[in-house]
């Protein structure tokens, strides 16, 4: 049978608790003042973003569809879907799913480019990229 050993509980020394109480008492009013200034100044509220970005990677297309729908739900006027290389086809899939399932969404613009990326070896590599601008009526 295994014996249960009692582990002594750590107790704070009286001197340490007094110092801790002093530090907490000094910092608490500062926090209260900061909170008051935020409440008193209503102009610090952020407005809805005009356009947002969704970067396409290796996840499934529906994950990015959800990201775009979430951006529109937060008040975005346009969402820009960006992809590079092999992810371009997934970006097109996301745009088509959005367009076919919601008649209020449409592809406003398509921008293509070639970006130069430096590999780990230090060599320049040209990669195709696409931006699909999705708008909602």
In N-to-C order, the SSE pattern is: HEHEHEE
The CATH superfamily of the domain at 47-136 turns out to be Alba-like domain
Average per-residue pLDDT, rounded, comes to 79
Structural class: alpha+beta
What keyword list fits this structure?
137 residues; Translation Initiation Factor IF3; four-stranded mixed β-sheet; flat
Describe the protein.
With 137 residues, this protein is an alpha+beta fold. The protein has a domain at 47-136: Translation Initiation Factor IF3 (2-Layer Sandwich). The chain is 39% helix and 28% strand. The chain contains three helices and four strands, in the order αβαβαββ. It has a four-stranded mixed β-sheet, with helices on one face. A hairpin with a 5-residue loop joins β3 and β4. α2 packs across α3 (88-101). The longest helix is centred in the first third of the chain and has 27 residues, at 14-40. Mean pLDDT is 79; it is low at 27-46.
Question: Nutshell version of this structure?
Answer:
The chain is 39% helix and 28% strand. It has 137 residues and is of the alpha+beta class.
Topology, pairings included?
Elements: H1 14-40, E1 51-55, H2 61-73, E2 78-84, H3 88-101, E3 105-118, E4 124-136
Helix pairs in contact: 2-3
